[in-house]
Amino acid sequence: MDNVTMSMLEYDQMKERLREYAVSYVGRKHIDELIPASNLRAIRMSLDETAEAKALLDKGASVPLPSLEGIDHIASLLHTGYLFAEQDFMAVLIFLNSCGQLRKYMASKRDIAPVISSYASSMQETDRLKSEIERCIRFGRVDDQASKNLERVRKKIAVTKERIQKKMSSIMSKHSSILQENLVSVRGGRYVIPVKREYHKQVKGAVLDQSTSGQTVYVEPEEISQLQTELGMLEGDEAREEGLYSVH
């Protein structure tokens, strides 16, 4: 079909209107690439599919189309050595659950839309993958039960944090009169106390920072320095263990 005829038929305008109903980037891309068909058999098949789709909509049902947003990016990173994060797995889980819903929905509509439903039935079940993601990731975070090592490391982290908190409470109480405020701060990932500048030498420890005005000095007390180093190493172990899960 030549450009003049397509212009007279307002073909591009029809595509724009159709594009407004697309619910995924794949659908929009497909519409953008549409050209008039010339094969009579293909045209009749497309018309039959359109009739089936209209019959589904006429029933008033909402077709559970899965969201594809982000899935193409995740798929493109497979076998590249990229370390997937928890949110990547959650996006995959949402997508797989949506695909399962669509498969079940179309299976129940075979009598209304036999051709369209056959496309959905070709989608593979992924129960094992879904159950593994659900087992290992909870609320967007790698769960303690993902591996024995991860569980062990996180227990040590919890114990170490509790020891640091108890010591910090004792230190804050001991030096309350020289603190700028009764509040624990964090500098460079390490807990510090805000000491009035003129008294900071009364606290044994390392100065990690100071306020813009220079009136407050942030000191890491010597009593918790070793504990904080241990905590940092444990958190490194935790990150590596989470990474091992992501690789698998």
Automatic annotation (TrEMBL):
This is Recombination inhibitory protein MutS2. It comes from Paenibacillus pini JCM 16418. One of its GO terms (biological process) is mismatch repair. It comes from the Bacteria. GO terms for molecular function: ATP binding; ATP-dependent DNA damage sensor activity; mismatched DNA binding. PANTHER family: OS10G0509000 PROTEIN (PTHR48466:SF2), OS10G0509000 PROTEIN-RELATED (PTHR48466). InterPro entries: DNA_mismatch_repair_MutS_sf (IPR036187), MutS (IPR045076).
